[in-house]
Write a structure and sequence with these properties.
By secondary structure, the protein is an alpha/beta fold. It is built from 13 helices and nine strands. Helix 2 links the parallel strand 1 and strand 2. The mean pLDDT is 97.
Length: 305
């Protein structure tokens, strides 16, 4: 591993190695604390988009492993505006041991990786969210005890989170279904790319418009906000289009009885998910949020230790 840009870049064995490492690091942390394997290492946190979980989970992952992380706000760096991405990559990589960037344009992540002499971690782009995807796989494995053969159903916008979950599902032997309104689903290219990643020819990828059809027989029901950051101008329209895609108790009842419900957060309660589900017996939202830190520890250890 030189960079962490997309789950599609890694073999199933590499993803499994990251998951097992994350599980060990979480157990070690709960048993008294992680060893300072990243002592003396530094991580630059480059943010073009704000985030509670991404900032705190990466910063605390470094701290708990003995390293140091510092935050660069959008106004401080203005990536691709005040300074070109290649120039920023060259400068930052002469100061720090690793760069985590949360950006709007995926091309900015690719340019950072191309011109940086240190590892680059994709903390989110408009194309994908692999750090979230790894934490999602981690959580499913921790709760269910396995990944292979499970069915994941994503309900809502075919966005960057859905794309990373799709790729992760294929790399770990899971089946994937997504229910989105027409015009808001993942692309045919995503489906073809995902099918080519399957580790078992029996794995299925299903794109539908009916949420009940998607979640039927699902072991995992996943949702995300209907309007992502940067799409605020579309909010009114999206609220109308997605109104029947709410993850509520009636919809969850269509899934397997022991299903779990996931959300990458922040949640717009009363829109894509109800309080009864977010706080209900199927919810693993808070375990999932905590696991961002542990999964990202595994990424940092693999890149830097």
């Amino acid at each position: 591993m030189k960079h962490f840009l997309s789950l599609a870049d890694f073999t199933p064995e590499q993803i499994d190695e990251l998951l097992q490492l994350g599980l060990r690091l979480k157990e070690e942390w709960r048993s008294g604390g992680n060893k300072p394997v990243l002592a003396g290492k530094s991580l630059a946190l480059v943010f073009m988009k704000p985030s509670l979980r991404t900032r705190v989970s990466f910063e605390m992952a470094m701290v708990r492993l003995g390293g140091y992380a510092f935050y660069l706000s959008p106004n401080e760096i203005k990536l691709g505006n005040r300074e070109s991405v290649p120039d920023a990559a060259r400068v930052l990589s002469s100061y720090v041991d690793c760069i985590m960037a949360r950006v709007y344009e995926h091309d900015h992540i690719l340019q950072l990786a191309e011109y940086s002499s240190v590892p680059v971690i994709n903390g989110l782009s408009d194309y994908n969210h692999p750090a979230q995807g790894l934490a999602d796989l981690f959580t499913i494995l921790e709760v269910k005890g396995r990944l292979r053969g499970l069915k994941v159903a994503f309900v809502g916008d075919g966005n960057n989170v859905a794309r990373s979950l799709l790729f992760g599902a294929m790399k770990t032997g899971m089946n994937f279904a997504i229910a989105s309104p027409a015009g808001y689903t993942l692309g045919d290219d995503d489906r073809e790319k995902a099918l080519a990643m399957r580790i078992d020819p029996e794995q299925t990828v299903t794109f539908v418009t009916d949420p009940a059809e998607a979640v039927r027989g699902a072991d995992v029901v996943y949702t995300d906000v209907w309007t992502s950051m940067g799409q605020e101008a579309e909010s009114g329209r999206r609220l109308q289009v997605f109104v029947s895609y709410q993850v509520n108790e009636e919809l969850v009842a269509q899934a397997n009885e022991d299903c779990i419900v996931m959300h990458c957060l922040p949640a717009h309660r009363g829109e894509e998910i109800t309080d009864a589900v977010a706080d209900g017996p199927h919810s693993v939202l808070w375990q999932q949020a905590e696991n961002r830190m542990h999964a990202q520890k595994a990424i940092l250890v693999k890149l830097l230790a």
